[in-house]
Amino acid sequence: MIQLTIITVYLALLLILGVFSSRLFKGTSKDYMLASHSIGPFLLLMSIFGTTMTAFALVGSSGEAYKEGIGVYGMLASSSGIIHSLCFFVLGVKVWSLGKKYGYTTQIQFFRDRLESDKIGILLFPILVGLVIPYLLIGVMASGTVVNSVTEGAFESSFALYDYGVPPWLASLVICGVVLIYVFFGGMRGTAWANTFQTLVFMILGVVTFYIIADHLGGLKAASEAVAKKNPSKLMRSVAPEDQERYEQAYAQWKTMAKYNYASKKLKSISLTEEQKKAAYAAFKPRMPNWQLKAETIFAKKNGLLKQLSIAQINDAYLWQDDRIPPETKPEDWDKTELTHEKLQQYPRKPGAELAGYKIFADKIGHPKKLIDPKNPKAGKFWTRKKARGVYRATKWAPDAPHHIDPWKFLTYLFVPLSVGMFPHLFQHWLTAKNANSFKLPVVAHPVFIMIVWVPCVLVGVWATSAELNGKAMFPPHFPPNAVLATMVKMITTPVLTGFLTAGILAAIMSSLDSQFLCVGTIFTEDIVVHYGGKNRFSDKQTVIIARLFIIAIVALTYFFSLFEPRQVFTLGVWCFSGFSSLFPLILAALYWKRLTKAGAYACIITAISLWLYLFTMSDYAAISNFTINFGGDSFVSFTKPGQHIEPGIIQTMPVMTMILGSTLAMILVSLITKPPSQETLDRFFPTK
Amino acid sequence: MKYAIWGLVLLLIILHQDLWFWDDATLVFGFMPIGLLYHAGISVAAAVTWYLATLYAWPIDPAEDTPVNSENPATSGNPVISENNGGEA
Predict the structure, then answer these.
(1) How many structural domains does chain A have?
(2) pLDDT > 70: what percent of chain B?
(3) What is the pLDDT of residue A147?
(4) Distance (Å, rounded) from C-alpha A453 to C-alpha A459?
(5) Domain presence at residue A178
(6) What is the pTM of this model?
(7) B42 touches chain A (CB under 8 A)
């Protein structure tokens, strides 16, 4: 309950801040959307940084590091330090200068003017809004998950289906409501102030949490040395031989277990007698969940009971044990060749397979703060439903193979942060600056701020791979990476700190949501309603009301989508960034290339979005989380298939590279063969000094 | 000087590809993975490079950098094309 109280107080503070900033609201649409261009260097730094750091900054960074190791810092953080500041420097300052000169409020106004095309807005509006919505979804869904995770057991008897914590749908609703209220009343000024406050909150709490976690794991050295001993691959970007060896052993054990399980439970061709079971249990020491099955497996193998299975049955056993959907027609070599792990992973896993854990562990699921058997405290407390799913995954599914980070993939990831150049909400933040000098602090400090937030999170994620609690691994295999940070904090710190850290995570999430909500409201009002309705049709007050109403509509729509829990929401985030990045050539050329024509811009946008749609479909709508475009090997070019391990030597590239190359090429070629912009436009955008 | 600054940015991007630390799991000071420390260094180097860029390659002339008069911007966000819908796409 303490966590819930701290979160509630924090949200109340934000509301007070929003209401207070609204008292400074001048009542004009310019003040609502751009804070009357009054934002100085410090507020600009904090609001831009808060906006670019989403749920990904705290939750995603530690989760990705848990999964991939330290390489994620180079892929996502140090690259962003270079590229984000490059965008602020090359694009932000110039955009601010033109915005000041011609009074722009949105990206679309600039493009309409620069490209001498009214209809470019109709093409860009759905694309920009369509790409922002998945980005919004990441925040809304992550907030629900985090609050639910840390409030488990907060209620005595309510919300049993949500482990007696705040249900994710309710938490997301409250977060949406709070952001909506302060954006509704405070507009851009409220957003900038709230972002500054929240950025300070998540940076300070992030560092404090890092210190406490390190201390709990025995200090910095002990925490890292445990990783060096148990998971050395996480400290580099290639696979350590000892990790490979450990995986091969674990996979061999899993295969044996799959055979025994299939033969005894599905085929019912093996059935150990009570005496055999007793002998099997007596010879087995560890007592992890489901240990009896392991003991029986070893016994069956030792006594040659598994030899009777045919290769086809063994393959069926692997699919069954790993909850994979069997093919309708079995491949020709099904009864001749045993499936490799890679081939096995190419069969899709049954959706919701882990829910079987609820049935298997039904007698263990209950209120996480109550003892299973009050007379026998050693039996421990009831499990949460999350734990039941986790134990099911850890004890049934095949272990994950360690994998390296491909240097080409690492290189082409540099294209992803270019998305910052086309984020409509960032464009709007740039225009709020008081003067060009206000950009200097964000340009310089942004890379260091990223480092302050990401280095501790990456270290915590890497430590989590090898951390132990009471002699047991803190995280079982197949643990959901994005739950690592919240779970770790909850397991090893006090409820007070857990409450504060949750407030920090929510701060990171909300400091992006607010700008995105405001921006979508602004572009709808300015680029659609006012533009097509006519400037004189609406008073300034009415314009503000329309923006506010549209913000309510978009918050409601995002919340509605979040209830369907779209899969792979974080992977979806990378796709959404890639979409914005593929439009980066357009903004760069619009500012620096006189020869860019209207037709060239259309070609750029249409190519970018067509390639995005095509590649997104090829990735099975983000279901293939490691999707890349690969060059070399058996064919010149190929796409990553589900579960495929790409061999070293094959060039793996992020899809964003192809999108950017395609859109750039189309833009240049079409611009060069079409009529250049009018002299009037060139004089406006490229004045001779 | 501008070219030197852009040269530094290019150098940063090249140094970002640290193939030499790809399979090195050394812990510096006993706790910091060398690959992570190196990239934290890249972040600091990026800040220094961008600081130099603000000193020597700032894109706006100081004379032009006056605060915006929000009450009277040059136009009010309505692009020229909206008043003259010629040249439709």
Answers:
(1) 2
(2) 70
(3) 87
(4) 11
(5) yes
(6) 0.88
(7) yes
* A384 lies in the same domain as A435: no
Domain that holds residue A338: 239-396
Residues A645 and A589 in one domain: yes
Is 60 exceeded by the pLDDT of residue A372?
yes
A118 and B40 within 8 Å at the Cβ level: the answer is: no
CA distance A507 to chain B (A): 23
Q: Is residue A522 in some structural domain?
A: yes
Residues A91 and A203 in one domain: yes
**Domain contains A583:** yes
pLDDT of residue A319 exceeding 90, the answer is yes
Inspect the interface and report whether the beta carbons of A448 and B59 lie closer than 8 Å: no
- Strands A635-639 and A629-632 turn out to be antiparallel
Q: What is the ipTM of this complex?
A: 0.88
Which B residues in the span 58-87 are in contact with A, Cβ-Cβ below 8 Å? Answer: 58-60, 64-68, 70, 73-82, 85, 87
Query: In this structure, which amino acid lies at residue A279?
Result: A
Return the axis-axis angle of helices A598-618 and A584-592, rounded to nearest 10°: 160
Write down the pLDDT at residue B10. Answer: 95
- CA distances A661 to A376, A627, A664, A670, Å, are 65, 18, 5, 14
Whether residues A122 and A255 fall in one domain? no
Residue that terminates a domain, selected from A342, A369, A396: A396
| Chosen domain end from A355, A378, A396 | A396
Q: What average pLDDT does the segment A477-491 reach? A: 84
pLDDT at position B75 over 50:
no
Burial of A639 (0-12, 13-18, 19+ CB in 10 A): middle
Which residue in the set A104, A531, A681 is minimally distant from B82, CB to CB? Answer: A531
Question: Which of A73, A681, A684 is closest, CB to CB, to B36?
Answer: A73
Residue A229 belongs to some domain of the structure? no
pLDDT reported for residue A565: 65
Alpha helical stretches, state H, A268-337: 274-282, 291-302, 311-321
